[in-house]
Structure formats: C-alpha cells, structure tokens
C-alpha cells in the first residue's frame, strides 16, 4: 500500500511539482495493477506501462509520460465498451463534482480489440492546504471474477432444472423439522402447493404414518440417516409405494443444518417383486467470493506493510504485528519448504513469483491462497517487493464439489435402468448417455446426434395424429411423459422406446431445448400385442363354435358364458349355479349328488347331461365336459 503526503507552500508548488509527478509515475509503474492519474479537471493525463500496453498506446503517446494536452474531462470514456460509456460519464462527473473517492466497474477495450471487465477506484490527491492536485486511480482486472459469477448463476439454474428433471420426489427439511424445499416432482405428484406441504406427512397413507414419524423422529434425535418405505398419495387420490431416504447435512462444527430427502416410486417393484433403483440427486453449495490482501516487503529490513484483510486470512489478532516468520507459521507444513525457497530466492532479487499454497489454521482447517509478488528497486542496493494474496479457498472447494457432483451424476447415469438425453432448440439430440446396455439393445446413441426422434421413428406416417400432438407439445414448451414410439435397430429389427422430457432454460429464461429419460419397452409392447391377439382368437373361436364355453368360480357360480349359452340371455345366468335352473333336480337326485361330490373333490368330469329351462323359455338338455383348475 502506497501513501503520499504533500506539504508544498505556494512559492514551492511549481518547483516541487515535477519531482512529485516523477515520483508518482515511478510508483504507479511498478505497482502490479493498472494505475493512472488525471488532472483536477478529470482529463486522463497518465497511465502506467501495464495500462498503456493493454490499451496498445504508441511508445511516444503523451499518456505514457503524463503530458497534459488539455484533453476533455471525459477523454478516456471512448476506451470503454459502448454499453458502459454513459454510466461511466455519470459516475466520473459525480466524482469530479463531489471531490470524493469513488469505485466503479466497466469493460475496457484492449489493443487486440476485445473487452475485459475492470474495477477501478479513484482517490483525490490533495496538497496540505486541501488543493486538489490530481486524481489517482488503481484498476484491477476482474474478468475472471465476472465469468465466475456468470458461471455460478448458470450452474445454479442448471442444477435447479436437473433437480426438477430427476425422476423422484426431492425435499429438504430444516433441523426444526419444518419443510424448506421440494422439487417440481413433488408438486406434480401431489397436486398441492408448497404451502399445503408444510404439513408434509398429510399425504402419507394412514397405516404408514406412525412408523414414518417415529423413524424420522429417531433420525433427527440421533443425527443418523433415515430410510423407510411409505405409501404416498398422488393428485388423483391413489397411494403408491415409495422408498424414502434422508441424509443430514452438517456444518463444520458438526451441527445439522438441513435434511435432504429423496422419495422414489417403487410401486411396480412392490407389485412385481422387481428391484427399482433410484439414485439420490445432490445439491451443490454456492461459492464464496475471494478476498485480496496487498502487501509490501523489504527483505533487507524485514519490514512488512499489509492491508487489514491480512488479519482475516491469517486469523491473527489485529494487535499482533505480522512478520514473515508469523506468515510462515500459518503455511501448511507440506508447503513450507517450497515457500521458504521462494522467499530466499526473491530476497536475493532473483525473480518475481506467482505461487499457490495452503494455510493451516489453528482449528485444523485449511485455506488455499494465491500469492503474486514483484520486485522493485527503491534505493540503490535495496529491493522491495509489492504483491497481493488472494484467498481462493471458496473457489477450490467449489471446484472440488463440482467434480464430485459430476462424478456422482455419471455414476448414476451408468447404473440406472433408464438412459438420459438432451435436445437443442430444434429438438435435435445433442446428448444421449452411452453405455454397453444400450449398444447391446442395438441402440447406437452417437447415430441419433443431430436427429429429431421423428427423423428415425417408423410410425410417423401411420400415426400422424400422435406425432402432431407430440410436436405441438414441444413447440408449446410443455413437459411430456411416457411417449412411446417404434424405431429400427441397427440390425433392422423393431424396438419400442418410452420417453419423458422437460424443457430447459438458461439463466435469462431463454429456451435451450429438452432434457429427459428414455427406456426400452419392446418386451412390454410385444407382450401386450400377444395378449390382445390371443384374446381376439379366443373370441373368434367362441363366437363361431357350435358349442358354448363357460367358467365357474370356487362357489360353482358362473363367471363366464359365451353369448350362445343356453340359447339366449346368457348374461342373466352370470352369478348363478347350473342347478338353479335345472328341471331334473328333484327327479334325479342321485345324479346331482354325484356331480356335487365330483366338484368338491376337484376332479374333472365329462358328458354330464341335465335338463334346464332355455333362454327362450323351452326345456333344453346340456352336456358338460370340464377340467378343474386352481388360480
């Protein structure tokens, strides 16, 4: 940090000014920043070498030497991005009017014609009598910070969309047991608003509620994971089995700050005894912006100048004077030798340095810092270092968390029974998860990239209404579920896919495409078709046969009769037993007792003949061959 104090009387102002300006220019040229000064009128008069090189100024340009050419107060504004110029004029005009320091950010054009974001701070330099001599400014390149902020916003938006696309019910509960967040899946499933879910257990099945409450109460009291099976009511009143898991999130002190839970629909698995695997989706924590320390160090004297931020990063009491040895005490043991070597080399003036290392705090926590230093010649034989230290712990932790989150998502995608896809604004595939199971099915994901699903579906012409409805939903940006269509495998055979998707948007709300899941349902479709074909054949046979067919239940009452049974009005006999209408029950009791004994023994019988009243009101004789079977 550089301080200038000016005490010049009227008679010496003109005499001392050149020396002051030369000294100021020398200081600004060695600072590791983009520095400059302007005349009291506001006109930019001098920029240091780093700034001049960035702007691409000629070697003889007046700004390199601090030559006042009588420029206008806003002569530097054309160097800015057109969208930033008007606002910058306003801030600079206000600064000149009030005479107070100001801070502002804008984009500056480089020598190559591109723009980068900078943060500048302007300070008035005054004589001892208060006369404004110059405006001095320091400008920092914050392009990477701006990009990181934009990337964070996009990451949060993508994460929200990913969470809402997860085929499960995601929710979080505070340490007090109050619901704090649910994903779109919960709202869609229950048909209720978020406010209605504040009594979260309202849509548990009554028979499961007590066990669910006891299990979760135990988890909250012990801080252990929660897992249960519960039936949850959906919007249409149907209860479906769900596997419910919850995990506590703790702060660094081990206190639970949130519970995150996932409820997965396992109704089909419960009914068919199949295992249905669902993986939890993970929430990412937001990054915290880094803080910067500026310092000056004179190796020959050990004198260390620093900004107040030093105490926060090193966690020293502000009353303690920082020294190089105290700084080394905070450096992680594994990095200490490296940093001593850097300090030894720099103290001899051998090189500048830009190095990253870790700090080990008294509580055992670790911080990551980036240190940049540059040597400047102060006096003959004396070297001083000016530099900056940036706490990049938040960025390191966020980067590590992002890699772990991506790895977890990849693990989920490779183990899930479904596969995942993404399309662009034109509904063409841009991504399809690719693993051995899909290739074994004959589906080559790469071959679908750049195609819409109707480009390769085989029923577009035969079922135009279905595809017209599907495409209209896509154009309306509506989510869709369980859309089934056929396609050809690589060997030419037919395969059926069932897919669901949801529109995705960027941080500004612009439509990007769709993201969703797909599954091979060929076996299911073929089984349904075979069943329908079998039923049709049975109906054709029954309606064309001269005999008629029947079935009875364990109570011997008719459960099925073909239309030609009993001559007519067969439906009226459903729910009756054959002897209800028998005309020879009293005249031939032995025959009927033998029939009942045979039925009770579950044995087959053949050619049992009896007389009953036909559907037309006339007596009819019937012969029954039968086989008993058990369901």
Describe this structure in words.
It is a single chain. With 631 residues, this protein is α+β, with helices and mostly antiparallel strands. The protein has 18 helices and 24 strands. β18 and β19 form a beta hairpin. The N and C termini lie far apart (90 Å).
Please outline the helices and strands:
Layout: H1 10-30, E1 34-38, E2 44-47, H2 49-55, H3 62-65, H4 82-98, E3 102-109, E4 115-126, E5 132-141, H5 143-165, E6 169-173, E7 179-182, H6 184-190, H7 206-222, E8 226-233, E9 239-250, E10 256-265, H8 267-272, E11 292-298, E12 303-306, H9 309-314, H10 324-330, H11 333-347, E13 353-360, E14 366-379, E15 382-391, H12 393-415, E16 419-423, E17 429-432, H13 436-440, H14 445-448, H15 453-456, H16 464-475, E18 480-488, E19 494-505, E20 511-520, H17 522-544, E21 550-552, E22 558-561, H18 589-600, E23 605-613, E24 619-626
Antiparallel strand pairs: 1-2, 1-5, 3-4, 4-5, 6-7, 6-10, 8-9, 9-10, 11-12, 11-15, 13-14, 14-15, 16-17, 16-20, 18-19, 19-20, 21-22, 23-24
- Counted beta strands: 24
User: Cα-atom Rg, whole angstroms?
Assistant: 41 Å
CATH architecture of the largest domain: 2-Layer Sandwich
Largest sheet properties: 5 strands, antiparallel
Distance between the termini: 90 Å
Secondary structure: helix percent: 25-40%
Shape: elongated
The level-1 CATH class of the largest domain: Alpha Beta
Can you tell me the residue ranges where pLDDT is under 50 for at least 5 consecutive residues?
1-11, 274-290
| Alpha-beta classification | alpha+beta
Strand content: 25-35%
Number of domains: 5
CATH fold-level name of the largest domain: Beta-Lactamase
